[in-house]
Write a structure and sequence with these properties.
alpha+beta; 51% helix; 13% strand; globular; disordered N terminus
Length: 158
């Protein structure tokens, strides 16, 4: 088990980090996969310990954000044609991802949380050092078919 974990790099996790509502987050399914648990188990533990997850640690994606996230992931064929999300995923900030590892209380989750934190830190440093890259990274993906008409558009950043 140690050998498998030692091969994990922050770059492997960086591709799972999105910017939603101005915060860099990782979605519950991806976090559960990294921590080696089912998404259902992660969400159960979060609900049992909800007082440990204020809004700046975790929030639930809106229906529009969830559809936008699913469309970004569809390029990797995670949802089959005709399938829909059963619920809106939860998005965990860096602090929420650490807290999730604590409430899961498994050796793998605790160990993998180090890689998650390193990925967030590396991304923050890269963006701070390269403003051109930052402008590309934070370029909004306008989701015209998923946004409702009106003054507020939902944007998901990658």
């Amino acid at each position: 088990m140690k050998d498998k974990l030692s091969r994990y790099e922050p770059e492997d996790i960086e591709g799972k980090i999105y910017t939603v509502r101005g915060q860099r987050v990782i979605v519950d399914r991806d976090l559960a996969g990294i921590y080696g648990v089912e998404t259902r188990r992660l969400n159960e533990q979060v609900k049992r310990n909800i007082e440990r997850f204020p809004e700046d640690f975790m929030f639930q994606l809106t229906e529009e954000e969830a559809k936008a996230w699913a469309s970004l992931r569809s390029q990797f064929a995670t949802l089959k044609r005709g399938q829909h999300l059963k619920y809106q995923p939860y998005a965990f900030t860096e602090h929420g991802a650490i807290m999730a590892a604590i409430v899961l209380n498994s050796p793998k989750a605790i160990e993998m949380s180090v890689f998650v934190v390193r990925a967030f830190i590396k991304m923050r440093e890269t963006l701070a050092n390269n403003k051109a890259l930052a402008s590309l990274f934070f370029m909004p993906i306008v989701l015209s078919r998923f946004t409702s008409p009106g003054p507020r558009n939902t944007m998901l950043y990658r």
